[in-house]
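Narrative of accomplishments. A recurring question from our advisory board has been how the design workflow behaves on a single, concrete structure rather than in aggregate. To address it, we present the structure tokens for one chain from the evaluation set, followed by the sequence designed for it. No filtering or post-editing was applied between the two.
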């Protein structure tokens, strides 16, 4: 079997928000996945693949842009239709259940019908297929969904945006020092993968195992982290004051805050946990996003959030 050579997750430079949201979605799968929005060349795919290799032990199941419904959901083989022998060919969703992560690059370019089906399965953890007059028994599937998109190529419809738990905007680094470090890391990785026993890659793999252990520990104990009613009230108040559409925003905010507390080894969710995740849970659910105007979280929103938390 060919060894997968991907930049170790611990060697990824920058992308702090993206890495944090991927970790939160791993710790608390109920969050409902992560949508990553950013221009080309910002290492969205690299970060997702490095995370998948670290957290799930392999590359994510990747959905191609031209995927058909049969390829996604699965279907009966042609022989089965002709002979009457039922032979099921599993699709990408069942493959994602085994691997742990389904990755959709340029999800905004995928057919809305397919996106809706995938999001339904993600939220219910149930795959039901009725095809060619043959009904497949209901299958339980569970995986983390990660989608990336370039907003210059168009947004998802608001109804689909809302189905993603967290939204993370990414952009090119503006710091010269950070860009220098990114360039140095990329070039070094290209050199190191040619070496059969690279200490640099071995160090990254060891650090990745430590991160995975921390994530597993947090995932095991997240249900034990206390969620005071005051925190639930805070999440509800924030959503109401920001005029967030629907009620999914406060649920995701609460789950993400709890996952953050678990990752940090805390026993009780605090307002600081809520403050840290609110942007990612709410930005794509604000009125501006619902009406297709823009998806932003600026200093104005941060100031408003701080005022609500301090009330």
């Amino acid at each position: 079997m060919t060894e997968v050579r991907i930049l170790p997750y611990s060697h990824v430079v920058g992308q702090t928000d993206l890495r944090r949201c991927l970790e939160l979605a791993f710790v608390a799968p109920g969050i409902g996945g992560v949508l990553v929005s950013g221009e080309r060349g910002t290492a969205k795919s690299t970060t997702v693949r490095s995370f998948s290799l670290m957290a799930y032990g392999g590359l994510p199941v990747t959905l191609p842009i031209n995927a058909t419904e049969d390829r996604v959901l699965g279907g009966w083989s042609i022989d089965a239709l002709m002979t009457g022998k039922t032979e099921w060919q599993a699709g990408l969703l069942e493959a994602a259940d085994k691997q742990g992560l389904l990755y959709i690059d340029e999800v905004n370019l995928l057919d809305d019908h397919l996106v809706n089906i995938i999001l339904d399965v993600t939220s219910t953890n149930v795959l039901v297929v009725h095809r060619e007059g043959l009904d497949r028994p209901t299958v339980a599937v569970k995986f983390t969904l990660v989608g990336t998109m370039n907003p210059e190529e168009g947004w998802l419809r608001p109804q689909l945006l809302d189905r993603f738990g967290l939204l993370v905007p990414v952009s090119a680094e503006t710091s010269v020092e950070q860009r220098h470090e990114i360039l140095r890391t990329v070039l070094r990785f290209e050199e190191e993968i040619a070496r059969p026993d690279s200490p640099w890659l071995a160090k990254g793999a060891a650090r990745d195992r430590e991160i995975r252990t921390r994530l597993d520990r947090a995932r095991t104990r997240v249900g034990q982290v206390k969620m005071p009613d005051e925190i639930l009230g805070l999440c509800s108040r924030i959503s109401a004051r920001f005029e967030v559409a629907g009620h999914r925003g406060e649920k995701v905010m609460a789950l993400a805050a709890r996952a953050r507390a678990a990752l940090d080894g805390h026993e009780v969710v605090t307002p600081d946990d809520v403050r840290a995740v609110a942007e990612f849970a709410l930005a794509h659910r604000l009125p501006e996003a619902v009406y297709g105007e823009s998806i932003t979280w600026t200093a104005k929103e941060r100031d408003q959030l701080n005022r609500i938390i301090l009330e």
